[in-house]
TrEMBL record:
Species for this entry: Acidipropionibacterium virtanenii
Signal peptide: none
Name of this protein: Alpha-(1->6)-mannopyranosyltransferase A
EC numbers: 2.4.1.-
Enzyme category, top tier: transferase
């Protein structure tokens, strides 16, 4: 694309994306009955149509920006700006953050005191969780307390302050993704387009201020730092530094500890490539080194203020008790319709979820991880393992929301991608964004089938997936290079 045409395209996508984001922010501000209203009426349909138009414009701008091989940071910043000053978007979780932060800042233990008792924040907490205590590890709580204190305990300013860690997370993700993509042989600009400018990511990390953003950011830095030190022939330092960051990511949100899988696999593979031992003893030793560092940091942060592991208390909110995109949660709700109390089903559902998750992660390691005596380290695929483990944790969990898959998407973008897989990730970004919008005012029992039906319509027909592949080809620059990159990825074993 000629320079003049690229400049025109850049101005176009910045303007259209900003307009779309602005309309969605306006919708979030005008929506008088967020969540799941009992019925639709005129004053609500107006804002929703406004939000729908905004979403269409934002997604259109993202797809149109695929061929631009630069200015990803500028694009993300422009599109994010309207989201920074509005009410919570697509989720009310940030009100729970503010409530938990208010409790901790005022000397209360959020693991013992319900969110519905959080002073001026209490009235805004979703009714599902107002009677429950915090479910997040202490790292999140301390950040939330700092943000509410910074906002002088004002509800609106507290919500805006919750976006400060989100912005920091996006910057860190952008830096980590760009640097790791170069290390893996992937296309940094494609990776940044798939993650940093993706509406699914921006709407949930910036608009929704989800702590998943900071958890993913720290986990990526853990992988990057550990692998970089291993490449510099300092693997044990890499395991200690990376492991410490894994523990820190876990104190933000529990799935962060899964980054330890990718860290150990990356370092082990690098050490073997450099002439080190590829034995079970060596692998276990490296695993324990990273684990000790992670446990030390996680325990240390948890000990601050005596909060400990209070997120395991019975009073904490249980994801399985509400409807989400999780098959387990949906099953619980369906059984509950027969008259069996949902509270009685939560325990068995959680147990089933843990068993399935553990089995899935073990399978992921057996499929892509290093297995001395069966698969040499050179044949392992650490980043595929990491992405699959994160996806398995989300899908097999007792709760599933579209933004839970951002971590897996980020890691997958670091691998050399075929055009077909890139097209699939683009479709996932579009449908995931739409699913988040639909679930703001409808049950997953309706929203998820609509998303699946839409996928069937836009992907399965030959012309459909050919069009999405053309977008993927534009994003990757040269359509022929996609196949070459996947061969390189197979040879390097990272993908």
């Amino acid at each position: 694309m000629p320079l003049t045409a690229r400049r025109r395209r850049l101005v176009e996508v910045l303007a259209v994306g900003f307009a779309g984001s602005g309309l969605m922010a306006w919708w979030a501000w005008l929506d008088e009955e967020p969540g799941h209203p009992e019925q639709l009426h005129g004053i609500q349909i107006g804002p929703w149509l406004l939000g729908l138009l905004g979403l269409v414009l934002l997604l259109t701008a993202w797809l149109r920006s695929a061929s631009l091989k630069s200015r990803r940071g500028l694009t993300a910043a422009c599109w994010s700006t309207p989201m920074l000053v509005t009410r919570p978007m697509l989720s009310q979780d940030s009100w729970a953050y503010a409530a938990q932060g208010w409790l901790l800042a005022h000397g209360h233990n959020p693991y013992l005191v319900a969110q519905g008792q959080a002073g001026p924040m209490a009235a805004h907490v979703d009714w599902h969780w107002s009677g429950t205590t915090a479910v997040y590890p202490p790292g999140s709580l301390w950040i939330q307390a700092a943000m509410t204190a910074l906002a002088a305990n004002h509800p609106y300013w507290s919500i805006l302050a919750m976006r400060i860690p989100a912005v920091v997370a996006m910057v860190v993700i952008a830096v980590a993704v760009a640097r790791m993509a170069r290390m893996t042989g992937a296309d940094p600009q494609l990776a940044l387009w798939l993650i940093v400018t993706n509406p699914l990511v921006l709407l949930n990390i910036i608009g929704g201020a989800h702590n998943d953003g900071l958890q993913v950011a720290i986990a990526l830095v853990a992988l990057w730092s550990g692998w970089s030190l291993a490449r510099a022939r300092r693997p044990w330092l890499g395991l200690l530094a990376g492991g410490a960051l894994v523990g820190l990511a876990g104190t933000i949100k529990q799935p962060g500890v899964l980054a330890g899988l990718g860290l150990v696999a990356l370092v082990h593979r690098q050490v073997v490539t450099d002439g080190g031992r590829d034995t079970w003893r060596a692998l276990v030793g490296r695993t324990l080194t990273g684990a000790v560092a992670a446990i030390a940091v996680f325990t240390g942060v948890s000990a601050i203020g005596g909060l400990g592991l209070g997120w395991l208390n019975d009073t904490a909110g249980t994801p399985a008790s509400v409807t989400s995109d999780s098959l387990i949660a949906m099953t619980v709700q369906v059984i509950g319709w027969t008259g069996i109390p949902v509270a009685r089903l939560v325990g068995p559902a959680t147990t089933i979820s843990l068993v399935l998750t553990a089995a899935a992660i073990i399978w992921c390691w057996a499929r892509w991880g290093p297995v001395p005596g069966y698969r040499a380290a050179a044949g392992s695929r650490p980043l595929a393992l990491q992405a699959a483990a994160l996806a398995a944790f989300a899908i097999c969990g007792a709760s599933l929301q579209p933004w839970y898959l951002i971590g897996a998407l980020a890691v997958l973008s670091l691998t050399p991608l075929t055009r077909r897989l890139t097209a699939g990730l683009v479709v996932a970004g579009v449908l995931g964004s739409g699913l988040c919008f639909l679930q703001w005012f409808s049950s997953p029992f309706l929203a998820l089938p609509v998303a699946i039906l839409t996928w069937l319509v836009v992907w399965l027909p030959a012309r459909g997936h050919q069009w999405w592949e053309s977008v993927a080809a534009a994003a990757s620059g040269d359509p022929m290079r996609a196949g070459e990159r996947v061969e390189a990825g197979g040879a390097s074993g990272l993908g």
